[in-house]
Amino acid sequence: MSSVTGSPFRAAVGAAARGTAFGKVLDPRLVRGYGVGVTDRPEIFTMGELRASGHVLKDLRQEIRGNLLAALAAGENPWPGMYGFGRTVLPQLERALIAGHDVVLLGERGQGKTRLLRTLAGLLDEWSPVIEGSELNEHPFEPITEHSRALALTEGDRLRVAWRHRSERYVEKLATPDTSVADLIGDVDPMRVAEGRRLGDPETIHYGLVPRSNRGIIAINELPDLAERIQVSMLNVMEERDIQIRGYVLRLPLDVLVVASANPEDYTNRGRIITPLKDRFGAEIRTHYPIELDDEVSVIRQEGQLVADVPPVILEILARYTRALRQSPAINQTSGVSARFAIAGAETVAAAALRRASIRGETEAVARIVDLDTAVEVLSGKIEFESGEEGREQAVLDHLLRTATAEAVRAHFQGLDLGPLVAALDGHTTVTTGEHVTAREFLENLPSLNGSGLYDEIGNRLGAGNEGQQAAAIELALEGLYLARRISKESDDEETVYG
Predict the structure, then answer these.
(1) Within this chain, do residues 249 and 152 fall inside the same structural domain, yes or no?
(2) Crossing angle for the helix pair 312-327 and 293-303, nearest 10 degrees?
(3) Domain count, the chain
(4) How far apart are CA 242 and CA 207, in angstroms?
(5) In angstroms, rounded to a whole number, what is the distance separating the alpha carbons of residues 71 and 67?
(6) What is the extent of the structural domain holding 144?
(7) Do 281 and 297 share a domain, yes or no?
(8) CA atoms within 13 A on the CB side of 327
């Protein structure tokens, strides 16, 4: 690493993106789950000062390779916020980056492809020098345009140096069908021609997204959506590292890493990656949904913007529910069941709890089992069913939710004798809960168990620390007894009665 750039893991870059005229670059201020802060830029302003500092010019792939190997050797995690890829996707990606390959990630929707691509910015040096005012972010030691070379020759060590943060060196473009060659590569700017420049003058060129990403990473999301003729324009960039505009071959030795994402079904449904372009990607890596339940829960917890307390067991049920949907023959698995399904479910459940707390005056908004039904009602549109399942969609969703809930009950209450609770519901005594029943009302109306301590044990099994969490734990126990056919349940839009 150069002596004037910090460790890329000292202040890692957030995953949120902000728009530019061409694509998206990461916003270093939005550090959602990726560490804190950005260090001060180096106090070096001329090429002479830069040379005296001992700064060493490295190409982009050297820079990424060196920072990745340094992080691995130090035991640091180069991929903050990524769950479930540790033994599968990440080793493949690390090998590809060490080899200096361009990369395409293939996987169904909601597998974290874009998030993974955005973490690549953390492998760049935190601050990188450029020629001040350079359109293509040229390094002061290696200008590539005629204007910058002339400027460097004239100014010498007085050449002004500016600094770019690593977040500005990652650019993201969503491949839409209306994307043009001019957007990606560039075009002749008629205004510059009108100012009196010759048509063949490189100064008449308005550069597109790829040249402007020089010495950085360009990520193209949903690559197959690019028209095939537009994909052709990428061939020279990825192999010869030069660009052609309107018949002019500009020998610009661009230093860019091209990464892309694609859904496998896009090859037949909406478009395809043309064979010559596929051939130019050094690595094609398949992503997948989280394999372990804990990883699925971690993704929900990390990504969900929860407006109320959602107990861990509720998140676990949503994770189990999502995994059950991915295994169901009634669901179109080619389309996949996105991680956003469970995330949106957790957010909906939290919203239901906050709504109840606001209406009924609860001091703490805590989600309970009864709130899960509200999530199912609004999430069905995120799933594609097989063609033979028309009319059965709601039944499939309800059945799989019951299955997920029963699995959670077995996992947490195994070995716990719930017989006293069953005996207390003797045909005359019932327990009422519902969307508008507060946690305190629910707990106060529970039947007495003659000091058995069962209610406390149920809460302890789930780590309940307040009334809302205790109510959620006991509701889960009641739902488990119902699913085991040991008690009955009657539900309407307002209330659920166990008895």
Answers:
(1) yes
(2) 120
(3) 2
(4) 12
(5) 6
(6) 17-286
(7) no
(8) 10
How far does CA 355 lie from the centroid of its chain? Answer: 28
Summarised one tens digit per residue, pLDDT across range 309-356 is 999 999 999 999 999 999 998 888 887 888 899 999 999 999 999 999
Same structural domain, 274 and 372: no
pLDDT tens digits, one per residue of 23-66: 555 554 433 333 345 888 899 999 999 999 999 999 999 999 99
Secondary structure, 3-state, 216-264: EEEEEECHHHCCHHHHHCCHHHHHCCCEEECCEEECCCCCEEEEEEECH
Position 232 confidence tier, pLDDT thresholds 50, 70, 90: confident
Q: Is 1 part of a structural domain of the chain? A: no
Q: 40: which 2 tokens?
A: 């001060």
CB count in 10 Å sphere of residue 265: 15
Two tokens at 357? 């707390």
Does residue 462 lie within any of the structural domains? Answer: yes
CA–CA separation, 218 vs 175, rounded Å? Answer: 12
Where among 286, 315, 338 does a domain terminate?
Answer: 286
Longest dimension (CA), the chain: 96
- Is 70 exceeded by the pLDDT of residue 362? yes
DSSP strand pairing (186-188 vs 205-207) = antiparallel
Q: What is the pLDDT of residue 425?
A: 86
Q: Are 163 and 302 in the same domain?
A: no
Do 390 and 307 lie in one domain? The reply is: yes
pLDDT band, very low/low/confident/very high, at 472 (cuts 50, 70, 90): very high
Residues 6+ apart with CB under 8 A from 5: 42, 125, 126, 127, 128
The two three-digit tokens of residue 196, written as one number: 């009196």
Q: What is the DSSP letter of 323?
A: H
Tokens describing residue 109: 């929707």
10 in a domain, yes or no? no
For a pLDDT cut of 90, what percent of the chain falls above it?
54
Half-sphere exposure of 463 (CA within 13 A, CB side): 5
84 closest CA partner among 110, 102, 57, 59:
110
Answer yes or no: is 282 within a domain: yes
153: tokens are 């020759």
Compute CA distances 31 → 115, 126, 222, 275, whole Å.
13, 14, 25, 38
- In sequence order, what are the beta bridge partners of 178? none
Same domain, 353 and 267: no
Q: Model's pTM, two decimal places?
A: 0.84
User: Is the domain of 307 the same as that of 261?
Assistant: no
Phi and psi (nearest 5°) for 333?
Answer: -80, -15
186 and 207 inside one domain: yes
Residue pair 262/229 in contact by the 8 Å Cβ criterion? no
